[in-house]
Amino acid sequence: MRNTTRHLFLAFVIVALAAISSGTAAAVTVTPHVPPVQSITPSDGAVVGIAHPVTVRFAAPVADRAGVERSVTVGTQAGSFSWNGDSELVWHPTGFLPANTTVTVKAGTARTQFSTGGGTTADADMSAHTFTVYVPGEAPRVIPASMGKPGRETPVGTFPVMEKFRTITFDSRTIGIPLSDPEGYLLTGEFAERLTSGGVFVHSAPWSVDQQGYSNVSHGCINLPPDDAQWYYNNVSVGDPVTVHW
Predict the structure, then answer these.
(1) Number of neighbours of residue 225 by Cβ within 10 angstroms
(2) What is the spatial distance between Cα 197 and Cα 193, in angstroms, rounded to a whole number?
(3) How many angstroms separate the Cα of 105 from the Cα of each of 60, 95, 115, 118?
């Protein structure tokens, strides 16, 4: 019996080697191990802006990142991936998502759907001191603005709106400026949209109205006149893009 088993094993090895040498061996497909999905953002049924990223949080650290990335699809849209730690994957769309569209997200065996809004975009020109808002179907609204002053310049790039606040407290200590410093401040802001985790916002700024449209005097935020800031707040969605440039 042992000799028979040994002969069968040797025969299998010979056949396998022959197949490899002749180029007829079948490819081996390895399915990546995808840990259970804890959550997907945007959540099922959410309506978001056209630049909103998709965040997938896994219940355990991911070892095979490349394999897990291949398991994630967001509609038919092209995009790129980044990781926040070992268990949070972020997908960023290439360009913008189509407006007024339902998007299906698949991550392993998890599946969810969200919808996009009308596609409001904004362009912040730091040289012209303008903030131009494009609402589909309407004429562009060109708003005088004041951005970050020298040494505190507003960052350049395209930023999806992260959060919206009807009122918010602005505290200079969050960007490293003590209240005792001549540059320090602690005040209530209105009609604010967060652009970065570092504290850059678009917001109403009645204290800099005289500079808006003429010079950049803020600590990095995009200052707008109160009435225009309220209008933008009412027309922008979380996930809509703001492009900042010179």
Answers:
(1) 20
(2) 11
(3) 20, 17, 11, 20
User: What six digits make up the tokens of 31?
Assistant: 């399915």
In-domain check, residue 154: yes
pLDDT at 32: 64
Nearest to 175 by CA among 195, 159, 194, 152: 152
Asked if the model's pLDDT at residue 29 lies above 70, the reply is: no
- Domain span at residue 179? 121-244
Tell me what the mean pLDDT of segment 113-135 comes to: 98
Assess whether 185 and 132 both reside in one domain. Answer: yes
Instruction: Output the DSSP codes for 104-124.
Output: EEEETTEEEEEEE-S--EEEE
Between 27 and 50, name the one with better pLDDT.
50
Active-site residue among 52, 129, 219, 221? 221
CATH code at position 55 = 2.60.40.3710
Say how many C-beta atoms besides its own lie within 10 A of residue 174's C-beta: 10
Structure pTM? Answer: 0.84
Which helix (H) or strand (E) segment holds residue 4: the answer is helix 2-22
Identified catalytic residue from 52, 129, 203, 219 = 203
* CA neighbor of 56 nearest in space, from 32, 22, 91, 80: 91
**Catalytic (active site) residue 92:** no
Mean pLDDT of the chain: 90
Among this protein's residues, is 245 annotated catalytic? no
The dihedral sign for the CA sequence 158, 162, 166, 167: negative
